Structure to design on (635 residues):
Protein backbone atom coordinates (compact mmCIF):
# COMPACT_ATOMS: atom_id res chain seq x y z
CA UNK A 1 0.00 0.00 0.00
CA UNK A 2 1.37 3.36 -0.97
CA UNK A 3 1.61 6.36 1.33
CA UNK A 4 -0.97 8.09 -0.81
CA UNK A 5 -3.49 5.35 -0.17
CA UNK A 6 -2.85 5.43 3.59
CA UNK A 7 -3.38 9.17 3.51
CA UNK A 8 -6.66 8.72 1.67
CA UNK A 9 -7.83 6.07 4.13
CA UNK A 10 -6.91 8.37 7.00
CA UNK A 11 -8.84 11.33 5.64
CA UNK A 12 -11.76 9.07 4.85
CA UNK A 13 -11.89 7.70 8.39
CA UNK A 14 -11.80 11.23 9.85
CA UNK A 15 -14.73 12.22 7.65
CA UNK A 16 -16.68 9.13 8.70
CA UNK A 17 -15.99 9.61 12.39
CA UNK A 18 -17.01 13.29 12.24
CA UNK A 19 -20.26 12.27 10.59
CA UNK A 20 -20.87 9.52 13.12
CA UNK A 21 -20.10 11.82 16.03
CA UNK A 22 -22.52 14.50 14.84
CA UNK A 23 -25.28 11.98 14.22
CA UNK A 24 -24.77 10.42 17.65
CA UNK A 25 -24.78 13.83 19.35
CA UNK A 26 -28.07 14.75 17.68
CA UNK A 27 -29.61 11.38 18.54
CA UNK A 28 -28.40 11.69 22.11
CA UNK A 29 -30.03 15.11 22.52
CA UNK A 30 -33.32 13.85 21.08
CA UNK A 31 -33.34 10.75 23.29
CA UNK A 32 -32.47 12.92 26.32
CA UNK A 33 -35.32 15.32 25.55
CA UNK A 34 -37.92 12.57 25.28
CA UNK A 35 -36.55 10.55 28.19
CA UNK A 36 -36.58 13.48 30.61
CA UNK A 37 -40.08 14.43 29.58
CA UNK A 38 -41.70 11.00 29.45
CA UNK A 39 -41.23 10.41 33.19
CA UNK A 40 -44.20 12.67 33.83
CA UNK A 41 -46.73 10.14 32.56
CA UNK A 42 -46.14 7.83 35.52
CA UNK A 43 -46.99 10.59 37.95
CA UNK A 44 -50.15 12.03 39.40
CA UNK A 45 -50.67 15.76 39.43
CA UNK A 46 -49.63 16.01 43.04
CA UNK A 47 -46.37 17.21 44.54
CA UNK A 48 -43.98 14.25 44.52
CA UNK A 49 -43.80 12.06 47.59
CA UNK A 50 -46.94 13.60 49.06
CA UNK A 51 -50.36 12.14 49.81
CA UNK A 52 -53.80 13.59 50.37
CA UNK A 53 -55.81 12.01 53.15
CA UNK A 54 -59.30 12.55 54.53
CA UNK A 55 -61.40 11.39 57.43
CA UNK A 56 -62.68 7.81 57.11
CA UNK A 57 -66.32 8.96 57.04
CA UNK A 58 -65.73 11.22 54.05
CA UNK A 59 -67.19 9.58 50.91
CA UNK A 60 -65.03 11.65 48.51
CA UNK A 61 -62.17 9.52 47.16
CA UNK A 62 -61.10 11.33 43.97
CA UNK A 63 -60.21 14.93 43.20
CA UNK A 64 -58.96 16.63 40.06
CA UNK A 65 -56.09 19.18 40.17
CA UNK A 66 -58.61 21.93 39.34
CA UNK A 67 -60.77 20.97 42.30
CA UNK A 68 -57.75 21.02 44.62
CA UNK A 69 -56.83 24.49 43.40
CA UNK A 70 -60.41 25.67 43.95
CA UNK A 71 -60.29 24.33 47.51
CA UNK A 72 -57.00 26.10 48.26
CA UNK A 73 -58.33 29.36 46.83
CA UNK A 74 -61.55 29.07 48.83
CA UNK A 75 -63.89 28.78 45.84
CA UNK A 76 -64.90 25.33 47.06
CA UNK A 77 -65.41 25.36 50.81
CA UNK A 78 -67.88 22.57 51.44
CA UNK A 79 -67.53 18.86 50.70
CA UNK A 80 -71.06 18.70 49.26
CA UNK A 81 -69.76 20.78 46.30
CA UNK A 82 -67.55 17.76 45.56
CA UNK A 83 -70.30 15.18 45.99
CA UNK A 84 -69.61 14.55 49.67
CA UNK A 85 -71.37 15.35 52.94
CA UNK A 86 -72.42 18.79 54.14
CA UNK A 87 -69.21 19.62 55.92
CA UNK A 88 -66.83 22.49 55.43
CA UNK A 89 -63.43 21.69 53.94
CA UNK A 90 -60.51 22.28 56.25
CA UNK A 91 -57.00 22.14 54.78
CA UNK A 92 -54.31 20.67 57.00
CA UNK A 93 -50.67 20.83 55.82
CA UNK A 94 -47.13 20.96 57.18
CA UNK A 95 -47.36 24.72 57.63
CA UNK A 96 -50.23 24.20 60.12
CA UNK A 97 -48.24 21.73 62.21
CA UNK A 98 -46.34 24.33 64.18
CA UNK A 99 -49.49 26.22 65.16
CA UNK A 100 -51.29 23.04 66.26
CA UNK A 101 -48.60 21.13 68.11
CA UNK A 102 -45.59 22.13 70.18
CA UNK A 103 -42.11 20.82 69.43
CA UNK A 104 -42.32 18.63 72.57
CA UNK A 105 -45.51 17.02 71.33
CA UNK A 106 -43.87 16.26 68.00
CA UNK A 107 -40.65 15.06 69.55
CA UNK A 108 -37.18 16.47 68.94
CA UNK A 109 -36.70 14.30 65.86
CA UNK A 110 -40.35 14.60 64.74
CA UNK A 111 -40.86 11.01 65.82
CA UNK A 112 -44.47 11.62 66.91
CA UNK A 113 -45.46 13.54 63.80
CA UNK A 114 -47.12 10.58 62.10
CA UNK A 115 -49.36 9.66 65.04
CA UNK A 116 -50.34 13.30 65.60
CA UNK A 117 -51.40 13.64 61.95
CA UNK A 118 -53.33 10.36 62.10
CA UNK A 119 -55.14 11.36 65.28
CA UNK A 120 -55.98 14.80 63.90
CA UNK A 121 -57.39 13.46 60.63
CA UNK A 122 -59.45 10.82 62.44
CA UNK A 123 -60.99 13.33 64.83
CA UNK A 124 -61.95 16.02 62.27
CA UNK A 125 -64.55 15.07 59.68
CA UNK A 126 -63.97 17.91 57.19
CA UNK A 127 -60.18 17.76 57.06
CA UNK A 128 -58.17 17.49 53.85
CA UNK A 129 -54.65 16.57 54.93
CA UNK A 130 -51.64 17.05 52.66
CA UNK A 131 -48.39 15.52 53.92
CA UNK A 132 -45.32 13.60 52.76
CA UNK A 133 -46.49 10.04 52.18
CA UNK A 134 -44.31 8.59 54.93
CA UNK A 135 -46.13 10.65 57.56
CA UNK A 136 -49.53 9.52 56.32
CA UNK A 137 -50.58 6.34 58.04
CA UNK A 138 -51.72 3.50 55.78
CA UNK A 139 -54.99 3.25 57.70
CA UNK A 140 -56.13 6.74 56.62
CA UNK A 141 -58.51 7.17 53.68
CA UNK A 142 -56.51 8.48 50.71
CA UNK A 143 -57.65 10.75 47.89
CA UNK A 144 -56.78 9.71 44.34
CA UNK A 145 -55.56 12.39 41.99
CA UNK A 146 -55.71 11.80 38.23
CA UNK A 147 -52.57 10.64 36.42
CA UNK A 148 -51.02 13.13 34.06
CA UNK A 149 -51.62 12.18 30.41
CA UNK A 150 -50.61 13.69 27.11
CA UNK A 151 -54.26 14.58 26.57
CA UNK A 152 -54.53 16.35 29.94
CA UNK A 153 -51.49 18.46 29.08
CA UNK A 154 -52.69 19.24 25.56
CA UNK A 155 -56.28 19.98 26.56
CA UNK A 156 -55.69 21.74 29.88
CA UNK A 157 -56.17 25.48 29.90
CA UNK A 158 -54.49 26.31 33.22
CA UNK A 159 -50.73 26.61 33.59
CA UNK A 160 -49.85 26.87 37.29
CA UNK A 161 -46.81 24.57 37.48
CA UNK A 162 -45.78 25.72 40.96
CA UNK A 163 -49.24 25.54 42.53
CA UNK A 164 -49.11 23.67 45.81
CA UNK A 165 -50.19 20.91 46.48
CA UNK A 166 -51.50 20.15 42.98
CA UNK A 167 -49.61 21.70 40.05
CA UNK A 168 -51.75 22.36 37.00
CA UNK A 169 -50.09 21.62 33.70
CA UNK A 170 -52.45 22.67 30.93
CA UNK A 171 -50.28 23.66 27.97
CA UNK A 172 -53.02 24.47 25.45
CA UNK A 173 -52.78 28.28 25.84
CA UNK A 174 -48.99 28.06 25.54
CA UNK A 175 -49.00 25.88 22.40
CA UNK A 176 -51.66 28.08 20.79
CA UNK A 177 -49.69 31.17 21.85
CA UNK A 178 -46.60 29.91 20.05
CA UNK A 179 -48.56 29.04 16.91
CA UNK A 180 -50.35 32.38 16.90
CA UNK A 181 -47.21 34.48 17.27
CA UNK A 182 -45.41 32.47 14.56
CA UNK A 183 -48.30 32.65 12.11
CA UNK A 184 -48.62 36.40 12.72
CA UNK A 185 -44.91 36.74 12.04
CA UNK A 186 -45.09 34.86 8.77
CA UNK A 187 -48.10 36.84 7.55
CA UNK A 188 -46.04 39.99 7.99
CA UNK A 189 -42.69 38.62 6.85
CA UNK A 190 -43.68 36.58 3.81
CA UNK A 191 -44.94 39.33 1.45
CA UNK A 192 -42.19 41.68 2.60
CA UNK A 193 -39.48 39.04 2.24
CA UNK A 194 -40.58 37.82 -1.18
CA UNK A 195 -40.87 41.36 -2.57
CA UNK A 196 -37.39 42.21 -1.33
CA UNK A 197 -36.10 38.93 -2.83
CA UNK A 198 -37.66 39.74 -6.22
CA UNK A 199 -36.18 43.22 -6.06
CA UNK A 200 -32.74 41.85 -5.26
CA UNK A 201 -32.79 39.10 -7.88
CA UNK A 202 -34.48 40.86 -10.78
CA UNK A 203 -34.53 44.61 -10.40
CA UNK A 204 -31.69 45.96 -8.27
CA UNK A 205 -28.38 46.85 -9.88
CA UNK A 206 -25.15 45.15 -8.79
CA UNK A 207 -24.00 47.84 -6.28
CA UNK A 208 -27.42 48.33 -4.71
CA UNK A 209 -27.85 44.57 -4.45
CA UNK A 210 -24.54 44.22 -2.62
CA UNK A 211 -25.41 47.00 -0.17
CA UNK A 212 -28.85 45.55 0.62
CA UNK A 213 -27.49 42.02 0.97
CA UNK A 214 -24.88 43.23 3.46
CA UNK A 215 -27.58 45.00 5.49
CA UNK A 216 -29.71 41.85 5.53
CA UNK A 217 -26.76 39.75 6.66
CA UNK A 218 -26.21 42.30 9.41
CA UNK A 219 -29.85 41.85 10.40
CA UNK A 220 -29.23 38.12 10.74
CA UNK A 221 -26.18 38.75 12.91
CA UNK A 222 -27.89 40.86 15.57
CA UNK A 223 -28.36 38.84 18.80
CA UNK A 224 -32.02 38.25 19.55
CA UNK A 225 -31.77 39.84 23.00
CA UNK A 226 -30.98 43.12 21.22
CA UNK A 227 -34.15 42.68 19.15
CA UNK A 228 -35.90 42.06 22.45
CA UNK A 229 -34.72 45.36 23.92
CA UNK A 230 -35.70 47.18 20.79
CA UNK A 231 -39.13 45.58 21.01
CA UNK A 232 -39.59 46.41 24.67
CA UNK A 233 -38.60 50.05 24.41
CA UNK A 234 -39.83 50.99 20.91
CA UNK A 235 -42.31 48.45 19.60
CA UNK A 236 -44.38 47.79 22.74
CA UNK A 237 -45.24 51.46 23.47
CA UNK A 238 -45.86 51.97 19.74
CA UNK A 239 -48.37 49.10 19.51
CA UNK A 240 -50.04 50.28 22.71
CA UNK A 241 -50.56 53.81 21.40
CA UNK A 242 -51.46 52.77 17.85
CA UNK A 243 -54.34 50.55 18.92
CA UNK A 244 -55.10 52.43 22.16
CA UNK A 245 -55.06 49.23 24.25
CA UNK A 246 -54.29 48.83 27.97
CA UNK A 247 -51.05 46.88 27.42
CA UNK A 248 -48.52 46.93 24.60
CA UNK A 249 -47.03 43.51 25.43
CA UNK A 250 -49.11 41.59 22.92
CA UNK A 251 -48.92 38.74 20.42
CA UNK A 252 -48.74 41.39 17.70
CA UNK A 253 -45.57 42.94 19.16
CA UNK A 254 -44.04 39.46 19.21
CA UNK A 255 -45.14 38.79 15.62
CA UNK A 256 -43.65 42.01 14.30
CA UNK A 257 -40.37 41.34 16.05
CA UNK A 258 -40.25 37.72 14.87
CA UNK A 259 -41.05 38.88 11.35
CA UNK A 260 -37.93 41.06 11.52
CA UNK A 261 -35.90 38.15 12.81
CA UNK A 262 -37.11 35.67 10.18
CA UNK A 263 -36.76 38.14 7.27
CA UNK A 264 -33.09 37.30 6.51
CA UNK A 265 -33.93 33.58 6.21
CA UNK A 266 -36.87 34.22 3.90
CA UNK A 267 -35.09 36.82 1.77
CA UNK A 268 -31.89 34.92 1.13
CA UNK A 269 -33.59 31.56 0.45
CA UNK A 270 -36.26 33.11 -1.80
CA UNK A 271 -33.64 35.09 -3.63
CA UNK A 272 -31.67 31.89 -4.30
CA UNK A 273 -34.81 30.26 -5.68
CA UNK A 274 -35.65 33.23 -7.89
CA UNK A 275 -32.11 33.56 -9.20
CA UNK A 276 -32.18 29.88 -10.15
CA UNK A 277 -34.85 30.51 -12.80
CA UNK A 278 -33.15 29.69 -16.15
CA UNK A 279 -32.43 32.71 -18.31
CA UNK A 280 -33.90 30.85 -21.34
CA UNK A 281 -37.36 30.79 -19.72
CA UNK A 282 -37.24 34.51 -19.03
CA UNK A 283 -35.94 35.22 -22.54
CA UNK A 284 -38.77 33.17 -24.01
CA UNK A 285 -41.30 35.20 -22.07
CA UNK A 286 -39.70 38.49 -23.11
CA UNK A 287 -39.57 37.30 -26.74
CA UNK A 288 -43.31 36.71 -26.65
CA UNK A 289 -43.78 40.40 -25.88
CA UNK A 290 -44.20 40.25 -22.10
CA UNK A 291 -42.65 43.16 -20.21
CA UNK A 292 -40.34 42.75 -17.22
CA UNK A 293 -43.07 42.76 -14.54
CA UNK A 294 -45.21 40.32 -16.52
CA UNK A 295 -42.19 38.05 -16.84
CA UNK A 296 -41.49 38.24 -13.11
CA UNK A 297 -45.05 37.42 -12.08
CA UNK A 298 -45.88 35.08 -14.95
CA UNK A 299 -42.67 33.08 -15.26
CA UNK A 300 -40.09 33.67 -12.56
CA UNK A 301 -42.36 33.48 -9.48
CA UNK A 302 -44.25 30.35 -10.61
CA UNK A 303 -40.94 28.66 -11.41
CA UNK A 304 -39.46 29.62 -8.04
CA UNK A 305 -42.65 29.00 -6.06
CA UNK A 306 -41.54 25.76 -4.45
CA UNK A 307 -38.33 27.44 -3.29
CA UNK A 308 -40.25 30.44 -1.96
CA UNK A 309 -42.69 28.17 -0.09
CA UNK A 310 -39.87 26.20 1.50
CA UNK A 311 -38.14 29.48 2.44
CA UNK A 312 -41.25 30.73 4.18
CA UNK A 313 -41.78 27.44 5.99
CA UNK A 314 -38.20 27.55 7.26
CA UNK A 315 -38.95 31.13 8.33
CA UNK A 316 -41.89 29.84 10.43
CA UNK A 317 -39.57 27.29 12.02
CA UNK A 318 -37.09 30.03 12.86
CA UNK A 319 -39.85 32.15 14.41
CA UNK A 320 -41.33 29.24 16.36
CA UNK A 321 -38.02 28.42 18.00
CA UNK A 322 -37.00 31.99 18.84
CA UNK A 323 -36.80 32.61 22.58
CA UNK A 324 -35.35 35.81 24.01
CA UNK A 325 -37.11 38.33 21.80
CA UNK A 326 -40.58 36.89 22.38
CA UNK A 327 -39.93 36.43 26.08
CA UNK A 328 -39.38 40.16 26.37
CA UNK A 329 -42.31 41.54 24.37
CA UNK A 330 -45.29 39.16 24.47
CA UNK A 331 -46.25 39.65 28.12
CA UNK A 332 -46.08 35.92 28.93
CA UNK A 333 -49.59 35.61 30.34
CA UNK A 334 -50.78 32.01 29.91
CA UNK A 335 -54.29 32.82 28.73
CA UNK A 336 -56.13 31.32 25.77
CA UNK A 337 -55.21 33.67 22.92
CA UNK A 338 -58.27 35.39 21.49
CA UNK A 339 -56.75 38.14 19.40
CA UNK A 340 -53.37 39.42 18.33
CA UNK A 341 -53.82 42.39 20.66
CA UNK A 342 -53.61 40.38 23.87
CA UNK A 343 -50.62 39.03 25.80
CA UNK A 344 -49.61 35.43 25.07
CA UNK A 345 -47.11 32.99 26.53
CA UNK A 346 -45.06 30.94 24.09
CA UNK A 347 -43.42 27.53 24.53
CA UNK A 348 -39.89 28.86 24.29
CA UNK A 349 -40.53 31.72 26.72
CA UNK A 350 -42.05 29.30 29.23
CA UNK A 351 -39.04 26.99 29.11
CA UNK A 352 -36.55 29.84 29.33
CA UNK A 353 -38.29 31.53 32.23
CA UNK A 354 -39.03 28.47 34.33
CA UNK A 355 -36.44 25.74 33.76
CA UNK A 356 -33.74 27.43 35.84
CA UNK A 357 -35.70 27.17 39.07
CA UNK A 358 -37.62 23.95 38.51
CA UNK A 359 -36.23 21.20 40.78
CA UNK A 360 -34.44 18.59 38.60
CA UNK A 361 -36.54 15.49 37.97
CA UNK A 362 -39.71 17.00 39.45
CA UNK A 363 -43.10 17.31 37.79
CA UNK A 364 -42.50 20.91 36.73
CA UNK A 365 -39.11 20.03 35.22
CA UNK A 366 -40.59 17.12 33.25
CA UNK A 367 -43.53 19.19 32.09
CA UNK A 368 -41.07 21.72 30.64
CA UNK A 369 -39.30 18.91 28.79
CA UNK A 370 -42.65 17.79 27.39
CA UNK A 371 -43.05 21.35 26.09
CA UNK A 372 -39.58 20.95 24.59
CA UNK A 373 -40.68 17.80 22.75
CA UNK A 374 -43.70 19.67 21.34
CA UNK A 375 -41.29 22.28 20.04
CA UNK A 376 -39.04 19.61 18.57
CA UNK A 377 -41.90 17.75 16.86
CA UNK A 378 -43.27 20.98 15.40
CA UNK A 379 -39.93 22.22 14.09
CA UNK A 380 -39.12 18.76 12.72
CA UNK A 381 -42.46 18.64 10.88
CA UNK A 382 -41.87 22.14 9.51
CA UNK A 383 -38.46 21.11 8.19
CA UNK A 384 -39.90 17.98 6.57
CA UNK A 385 -42.55 20.04 4.80
CA UNK A 386 -39.94 22.56 3.65
CA UNK A 387 -37.81 19.67 2.37
CA UNK A 388 -40.81 18.26 0.49
CA UNK A 389 -41.38 21.55 -1.33
CA UNK A 390 -37.68 22.01 -2.03
CA UNK A 391 -37.57 18.49 -3.57
CA UNK A 392 -40.50 19.26 -5.86
CA UNK A 393 -38.28 21.59 -7.77
CA UNK B 1 -29.82 38.19 47.71
CA UNK B 2 -27.03 37.33 45.28
CA UNK B 3 -25.85 40.94 44.67
CA UNK B 4 -25.78 41.60 48.42
CA UNK B 5 -23.75 38.51 49.16
CA UNK B 6 -21.33 39.24 46.30
CA UNK B 7 -20.69 42.65 47.79
CA UNK B 8 -20.27 41.27 51.30
CA UNK B 9 -17.86 38.60 50.11
CA UNK B 10 -15.75 41.05 48.11
CA UNK B 11 -15.51 43.33 51.13
CA UNK B 12 -14.68 40.40 53.40
CA UNK B 13 -11.95 39.04 51.13
CA UNK B 14 -10.28 42.45 50.96
CA UNK B 15 -9.84 42.35 54.71
CA UNK B 16 -9.18 38.65 55.23
CA UNK B 17 -6.96 36.11 53.49
CA UNK B 18 -9.91 33.86 52.69
CA UNK B 19 -11.26 32.57 49.40
CA UNK B 20 -15.06 32.51 49.13
CA UNK B 21 -17.22 31.79 46.12
CA UNK B 22 -20.86 32.62 45.69
CA UNK B 23 -23.35 31.32 43.16
CA UNK B 24 -26.99 32.11 42.51
CA UNK B 25 -29.97 29.94 41.70
CA UNK B 26 -32.65 30.82 44.20
CA UNK B 27 -33.47 29.95 47.79
CA UNK B 28 -34.52 26.39 47.01
CA UNK B 29 -31.28 25.66 45.18
CA UNK B 30 -29.21 27.02 48.07
CA UNK B 31 -31.01 24.97 50.68
CA UNK B 32 -30.78 21.78 48.60
CA UNK B 33 -27.05 22.33 48.06
CA UNK B 34 -26.58 22.79 51.79
CA UNK B 35 -28.43 19.56 52.39
CA UNK B 36 -26.20 17.74 49.93
CA UNK B 37 -23.11 19.27 51.47
CA UNK B 38 -21.85 20.93 48.28
CA UNK B 39 -21.86 24.37 49.93
CA UNK B 40 -20.98 25.61 53.41
CA UNK B 41 -23.38 28.54 53.67
CA UNK B 42 -26.75 29.11 52.03
CA UNK B 43 -28.85 32.24 51.74
CA UNK B 44 -32.60 32.22 51.59
CA UNK B 45 -35.25 34.88 51.18
CA UNK B 46 -37.84 32.65 52.83
CA UNK B 47 -38.06 30.56 55.95
CA UNK B 48 -37.31 26.87 55.73
CA UNK B 49 -40.33 24.85 54.65
CA UNK B 50 -41.44 22.09 56.98
CA UNK B 51 -40.52 19.55 54.27
CA UNK B 52 -36.97 20.92 54.18
CA UNK B 53 -36.67 20.83 57.96
CA UNK B 54 -37.66 17.18 57.85
CA UNK B 55 -35.02 16.41 55.22
CA UNK B 56 -32.27 17.94 57.37
CA UNK B 57 -33.63 15.99 60.32
CA UNK B 58 -33.38 12.78 58.27
CA UNK B 59 -29.75 13.44 57.42
CA UNK B 60 -29.03 14.25 61.04
CA UNK B 61 -27.80 17.77 60.24
CA UNK B 62 -28.38 20.56 62.73
CA UNK B 63 -28.98 23.87 61.02
CA UNK B 64 -28.26 27.37 62.23
CA UNK B 65 -30.63 29.92 60.69
CA UNK B 66 -30.09 33.66 61.14
CA UNK B 67 -31.70 36.74 59.67
CA UNK B 68 -29.01 39.04 58.24
CA UNK B 69 -31.19 41.77 56.73
CA UNK B 70 -34.75 42.64 55.83
CA UNK B 71 -36.29 43.31 52.47
CA UNK B 72 -39.37 45.42 51.83
CA UNK B 73 -41.58 45.17 48.75
CA UNK B 74 -43.46 48.14 47.30
CA UNK B 75 -46.65 47.92 45.33
CA UNK B 76 -46.24 50.25 42.38
CA UNK B 77 -48.75 51.96 40.09
CA UNK B 78 -48.56 54.24 37.09
CA UNK B 79 -48.14 57.88 38.25
CA UNK B 80 -51.30 58.86 36.35
CA UNK B 81 -53.40 56.53 38.50
CA UNK B 82 -55.07 58.64 41.26
CA UNK B 83 -55.09 55.73 43.78
CA UNK B 84 -52.66 56.42 46.62
CA UNK B 85 -53.40 53.64 49.10
CA UNK B 86 -54.88 50.14 49.19
CA UNK B 87 -55.72 47.55 51.82
CA UNK B 88 -54.30 44.05 51.81
CA UNK B 89 -57.72 42.67 50.85
CA UNK B 90 -57.89 45.04 47.87
CA UNK B 91 -54.37 44.01 46.82
CA UNK B 92 -55.40 40.35 47.01
CA UNK B 93 -58.44 40.98 44.81
CA UNK B 94 -56.41 43.05 42.34
CA UNK B 95 -53.60 40.51 42.00
CA UNK B 96 -55.90 37.46 41.83
CA UNK B 97 -58.02 39.15 39.16
CA UNK B 98 -61.20 39.46 41.22
CA UNK B 99 -61.11 43.22 40.66
CA UNK B 100 -60.58 44.03 36.99
CA UNK B 101 -61.36 47.74 36.90
CA UNK B 102 -59.82 50.51 38.96
CA UNK B 103 -63.22 52.11 39.62
CA UNK B 104 -64.02 49.18 41.94
CA UNK B 105 -61.44 50.53 44.39
CA UNK B 106 -62.38 54.17 43.86
CA UNK B 107 -60.19 54.98 40.88
CA UNK B 108 -60.82 55.83 37.23
CA UNK B 109 -62.73 53.64 34.79
CA UNK B 110 -59.59 51.82 33.66
CA UNK B 111 -58.70 48.16 33.20
CA UNK B 112 -56.34 46.70 35.80
CA UNK B 113 -53.16 45.26 34.28
CA UNK B 114 -51.23 43.04 36.68
CA UNK B 115 -47.46 42.74 36.30
CA UNK B 116 -45.74 39.94 38.18
CA UNK B 117 -42.37 38.22 38.48
CA UNK B 118 -41.99 34.70 37.08
CA UNK B 119 -43.35 31.91 39.30
CA UNK B 120 -39.84 30.72 40.11
CA UNK B 121 -38.87 33.92 41.92
CA UNK B 122 -38.80 34.19 45.71
CA UNK B 123 -40.51 37.58 45.47
CA UNK B 124 -43.44 35.93 43.69
CA UNK B 125 -43.76 33.33 46.45
CA UNK B 126 -43.58 36.03 49.11
CA UNK B 127 -46.39 38.06 47.54
CA UNK B 128 -48.47 34.92 47.19
CA UNK B 129 -48.01 33.88 50.82
CA UNK B 130 -48.08 37.23 52.63
CA UNK B 131 -50.27 39.48 50.51
CA UNK B 132 -52.54 37.19 48.53
CA UNK B 133 -53.44 34.65 51.19
CA UNK B 134 -51.70 31.85 49.20
CA UNK B 135 -53.92 32.34 46.16
CA UNK B 136 -52.53 32.30 42.64
CA UNK B 137 -51.98 35.38 40.49
CA UNK B 138 -54.57 35.99 37.79
CA UNK B 139 -53.99 34.17 34.53
CA UNK B 140 -53.95 37.45 32.66
CA UNK B 141 -50.99 38.73 34.71
CA UNK B 142 -48.07 39.74 32.55
CA UNK B 143 -44.95 38.10 33.85
CA UNK B 144 -41.41 39.28 33.57
CA UNK B 145 -38.18 37.75 34.75
CA UNK B 146 -36.60 41.11 35.53
CA UNK B 147 -37.52 43.70 38.14
CA UNK B 148 -36.41 46.59 35.95
CA UNK B 149 -38.81 45.48 33.21
CA UNK B 150 -41.71 45.63 35.67
CA UNK B 151 -40.80 49.17 36.69
CA UNK B 152 -40.50 50.24 33.06
CA UNK B 153 -43.77 48.58 31.99
CA UNK B 154 -45.64 50.08 34.94
CA UNK B 155 -44.43 53.52 33.94
CA UNK B 156 -45.76 52.92 30.41
CA UNK B 157 -49.12 51.33 31.20
CA UNK B 158 -51.85 53.46 32.79
CA UNK B 159 -53.75 50.65 34.51
CA UNK B 160 -50.65 48.82 35.73
CA UNK B 161 -50.04 47.36 39.18
CA UNK B 162 -46.82 45.59 40.07
CA UNK B 163 -44.45 44.90 42.94
CA UNK B 164 -40.71 45.40 43.39
CA UNK B 165 -38.18 45.71 46.21
CA UNK B 166 -38.16 49.27 47.60
CA UNK B 167 -34.64 49.80 46.30
CA UNK B 168 -35.96 49.47 42.74
CA UNK B 169 -38.70 52.12 43.01
CA UNK B 170 -37.95 55.00 40.67
CA UNK B 171 -39.69 58.36 40.18
CA UNK B 172 -41.29 57.10 36.95
CA UNK B 173 -43.66 54.93 39.02
CA UNK B 174 -45.73 55.54 42.15
CA UNK B 175 -45.26 53.42 45.27
CA UNK B 176 -48.49 53.27 47.29
CA UNK B 177 -49.24 52.96 51.00
CA UNK B 178 -50.82 49.76 52.22
CA UNK B 179 -53.01 48.86 55.18
CA UNK B 180 -53.03 45.49 56.92
CA UNK B 181 -55.74 46.40 59.42
CA UNK B 182 -58.68 46.84 57.10
CA UNK B 183 -58.02 50.46 56.17
CA UNK B 184 -57.47 52.12 59.56
CA UNK B 185 -53.84 52.95 59.06
CA UNK B 186 -51.98 53.16 55.78
CA UNK B 187 -48.20 52.83 55.86
CA UNK B 188 -45.93 54.17 53.12
CA UNK B 189 -43.15 51.90 51.84
CA UNK B 190 -40.20 53.95 53.04
CA UNK B 191 -36.84 52.87 54.37
CA UNK B 192 -37.71 54.16 57.86
CA UNK B 193 -41.09 52.43 58.02
CA UNK B 194 -39.47 49.18 56.96
CA UNK B 195 -36.63 49.68 59.43
CA UNK B 196 -38.98 50.17 62.41
CA UNK B 197 -41.16 47.30 61.14
CA UNK B 198 -44.37 49.30 60.73
CA UNK B 199 -44.49 48.63 56.98
CA UNK B 200 -46.15 45.23 56.66
CA UNK B 201 -44.77 43.83 53.39
CA UNK B 202 -41.28 43.09 54.70
CA UNK B 203 -39.48 39.81 54.85
CA UNK B 204 -36.32 38.71 56.60
CA UNK B 205 -33.39 37.45 54.51
CA UNK B 206 -31.73 34.45 56.08
CA UNK B 207 -28.33 32.89 56.14
CA UNK B 208 -28.04 29.20 56.98
CA UNK B 209 -25.19 26.85 57.80
CA UNK B 210 -24.83 23.42 59.38
CA UNK B 211 -23.63 23.38 62.98
CA UNK B 212 -20.69 21.13 62.10
CA UNK B 213 -19.24 23.87 59.86
CA UNK B 214 -19.52 26.56 62.52
CA UNK B 215 -15.76 26.96 63.03
CA UNK B 216 -15.14 27.37 59.33
CA UNK B 217 -17.84 29.92 58.58
CA UNK B 218 -18.06 31.87 61.82
CA UNK B 219 -15.60 34.67 60.89
CA UNK B 220 -17.60 35.51 57.78
CA UNK B 221 -20.96 35.26 59.55
CA UNK B 222 -19.70 37.62 62.24
CA UNK B 223 -18.54 40.04 59.56
CA UNK B 224 -22.10 40.24 58.20
CA UNK B 225 -23.31 41.59 61.53
CA UNK B 226 -20.58 44.18 61.93
CA UNK B 227 -21.38 47.85 61.38
CA UNK B 228 -19.64 47.70 58.00
CA UNK B 229 -21.39 44.47 57.00
CA UNK B 230 -24.76 46.02 57.78
CA UNK B 231 -23.80 49.22 55.98
CA UNK B 232 -23.37 47.17 52.82
CA UNK B 233 -26.93 45.89 53.37
CA UNK B 234 -28.21 49.46 53.17
CA UNK B 235 -25.97 50.09 50.21
CA UNK B 236 -27.73 47.34 48.22
CA UNK B 237 -31.17 48.70 49.07
CA UNK B 238 -32.07 46.22 51.77
CA UNK B 239 -33.03 47.08 55.34
CA UNK B 240 -30.31 46.49 57.96
CA UNK B 241 -31.15 44.77 61.23
CA UNK B 242 -29.96 47.60 63.45
Amino acid sequence: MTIKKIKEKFVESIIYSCGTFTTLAVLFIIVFLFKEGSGIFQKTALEEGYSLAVNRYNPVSKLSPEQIKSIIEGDIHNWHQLGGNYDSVYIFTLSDIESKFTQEELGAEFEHLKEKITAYVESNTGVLAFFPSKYVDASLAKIDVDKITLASILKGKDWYPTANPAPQLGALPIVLGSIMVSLGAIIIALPLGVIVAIFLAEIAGETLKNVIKTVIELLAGIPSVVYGFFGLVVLVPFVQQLFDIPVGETALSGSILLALISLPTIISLSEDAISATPQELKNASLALGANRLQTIFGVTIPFASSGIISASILGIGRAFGETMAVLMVTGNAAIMPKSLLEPVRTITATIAAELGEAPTGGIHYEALFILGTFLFVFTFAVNLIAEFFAQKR
Amino acid sequence: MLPLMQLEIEAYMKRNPAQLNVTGGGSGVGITSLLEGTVDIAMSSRELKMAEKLKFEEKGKKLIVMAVANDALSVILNPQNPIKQLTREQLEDLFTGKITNWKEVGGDDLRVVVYTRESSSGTYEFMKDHVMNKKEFTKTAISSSATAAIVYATSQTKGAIGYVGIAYVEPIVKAISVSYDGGQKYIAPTFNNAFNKTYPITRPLFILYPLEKEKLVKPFIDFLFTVYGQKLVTHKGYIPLK
Observations:
- DSSP finds 15 helices and eight strands in chain A.
- The mean pLDDT of chain A is 87.
